[in-house]
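Recall the central idea of this unit: under ordinary conditions, the amino acid sequence of a chain determines the structure it adopts. In this exercise we apply that idea directly, starting from the sequence alone.
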Amino acid sequence: MSMMKDEEYLPLRDVVFNTLRQEILTGKLKPGERLMEIHLANKLGVSRTPIREAIRKLELEGLVIMIPRRGAEVAQITLKSLQDVMEVRRALDVLAIELACERMGQAELDSIYQACENFKSAVRNGDTRLLAEADVAFHDKIVLSTGNTRLIQLVSNLSEQMYRYRFEYLKDASSHGILQQEHLEMYHSILKKDKITAADVVRKHINNQEEAIIKQLQLEKEDRKKSV
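Accordingly, the structure predicted from this sequence is:
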């Protein structure tokens, strides 16, 4: 595992935290996997102190849980946590796109069209990480166009948790074309300043993701049972 060059100026504990966090969010460190301090220290070429500090921060974020007599584990993606996040995200995204219909200028419209094209390119590439980043970038442009600082902050905080679920959704290649189509529908509804259609597309967008992730979690649960 290599440390990113643009993080070299950060304190070691922050580099370790960012590295472990990214591995959890992208599924490289899997739900339920134990985080052994000695193993991680050797793997990253650091002492146990920054590992311990990173695990403590990850626990505060809810990405790691401490199990009595077992130690630290990557938190499971539960149905309740998924539904809670999606419920709030659905409401915030509807508000964001309704405001975008009122406030988005031509330069911002051009920017989200380009974000649609970037997502299309990521689909052709087939890299899950690129797809996730392109999806986040598309939605960020809509939220930022509202100019509402509080809304931007709330969505930013929620996006940290959404990233993990987004990866679960993108594991299914059949979702890529659906996302691409929904992005275009959002773009055209904002272009027409059609708030009703825009809100409907966003609800459909979140509902499709929630249903697909639940199916994915069920499949993974069945696979774990078979392997035991």
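Residues 222 and 228 are 10 Å apart (CA to CA).
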